[in-house]
Amino acid sequence: MEIPNPRRILILSPPSTDLEPLIQALTAPPPSSTTPPTPSPSPPLLLLHHIHTPYYRTTIPIWTDHIPSPPAFHTEWLALPGAADVVAAIGAWIIAFPKPATSAELQATQSLLATVAAVISHHLAAPSSSSSFAIVEAPARFAVALPRRQLPLLQLEDAAWEDLCRESGGWEFVDGDGGGGGARNEFGETTGLPRLLEGLQSVEWDADDEGGMSEEGEEEEAMREPIMAADAEGGAERDTGGGGESLDTEGEGLDAEGEEGDAEVQALQRMMLKMQAVKEMGADLPEGERRKLAARAVRAVMRGL
After folding, report:
1. For a tag on the chain, would you pick the N or C end, based on fewer CB atoms within 10 A?
2. pTM given for the model
């Protein structure tokens, strides 16, 4: 599946941050690609990230900007008329920062993460009605610590970094100075910038334009078939008592409260059957694709309610 109009990647960083290793990793051709990416009419200076998996492929524009002052950024982005549209167009936020050498620099990094997270949350809570990008799920957030020549650097374990980033706005920590040669941590997870590239594959990039039926929309319609089949199965079970026998009709005098309770139970059963059908559909998919399938399935289920 080709995603023709994906959301964007936005990289924010303090001034003078060396983004070269990050940009090189993001703009390199995908190793799994057997065909060259679709040519883009975009200006040659535009940075592009190519994703090519067995399930979808797309070319994502990369935006970059510096944040000299987190308080000024916060004020500007809350007051800027078009800020909500920009936030809706971003599928992944990346905060890139040099590894800190002092406690003061560490606190500045934490403030930067918290400030940007607050801006994202503000605009997600009140999305723009004029944006062509429908927000179907919260954007991904990555905090990338980049290598730095200055020594000595402040020494923090990965676990401490992960806690700090998560508590500063739900960011996923990525050590930009590791992960070479396919390195993995003790849990078998990819590390370093390869982890970032892996995480970007799990993002919901499709803009989900409601103006027409996209390929993903067609997939959702196809997905509705087993969901509706599960719904029909649930209805058949209700008609036969779930075991091929007729329902007991002696309770025809139940009051309205009892009937309402039965209706709620039946609705819950239908929902469980639908979600079980989706679970079976995604059993053989990688985790990232299962997450995307689940997000699409929820939308399909809600539309069918």
Report:
1. C
2. 0.66
